[in-house]
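Work Package 3 (structural annotation) set out to generate three-dimensional models for the target panel prioritized at the project kickoff. During this period the team completed the workflow that converts sequence records into discrete structure tokens, so that structures can be stored uniformly alongside our sequence database. As a representative example, we reproduce one entry of 300 residues exactly as it appears in the project archive.
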Amino acid sequence: MIIPLIESLLKLDYPQDKIEIILVDDNSTDKTWDIIHKYSQEFSFIKAIKTRKEFSAFRGKKAGLQSALDIARNDIIALTDADALVPPHWLRSLNNYFTGETGLVIGYIRGERIRGIIRYKRIFSSGLFASLCALGKAFSCSGGNLAIRKQALTDVGGYTSIKDFPSGDDKQILNLIKRTDYKIVYNSEVKVIERQRQLTSEQRYQQAIRHYGKVSVSSKLYQIGFLLTAIFYLSLPLIAFFQPLIILFFWLGNISFYTFSAFLHKERIYFIDFLLTIFYPYYMLYFSLIGTFKEAKWKK
């Protein structure tokens, strides 16, 4: 249900006359429209819209995003998901990272009560996002916690230019903005929480394919890097047999990076994380390869 998200948005520590909340019903089959319409009648700064019919050919959630973009009146557009919870200082924190040169601010999204490899993946991936942003080589982000300058989004054609891709709208927009003169920066100061949902094994499988299967929409440099990484990890068992010391140093390097990311995002480190450092690369490679050759089913 979208109600917890809306309630968290209503608690934002930000002047109401300077924000507008656009809630999009993207052809839902539940009571989403009734809910968001009711909120829009009660609060003047909330707009409830349905996906416009002229965008029906857009795949994934891009039709809903473009419908909202077309009516947004402010210079900065913050995006989150229906199953998220935003903290009160969310907008103030995002604003602190915008200068005249900034086109996109990306941030951290944490799952609610997640454990094991899913938690490890969130922390490790966010460390990569932050590190590569700092180097001016941003390569991915989470659509549940980001802010875009409207002019930058308009300059790259909005979601119309990526309408044929079923998922990965966040990464695709990031790649488009990278081609402009705008800067992309990372904000580690605020967490958006993804609420826990009851998913079947099949839904979790499809979700992993969507999250990792973005190699085909990445830059050529990233694709080459992914190929070399895959070859390296597939060769690790052989390397470990002949040169175990190399593997030890490599494992310690991974642990150090994970520790850096956990510290950056104020997350605790557990003993199991040291074991997951060994298995996570193969988990990532598996779903990246599956997602490259098989299209994931879009979430309902």
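The chain has a mean pLDDT of 85.
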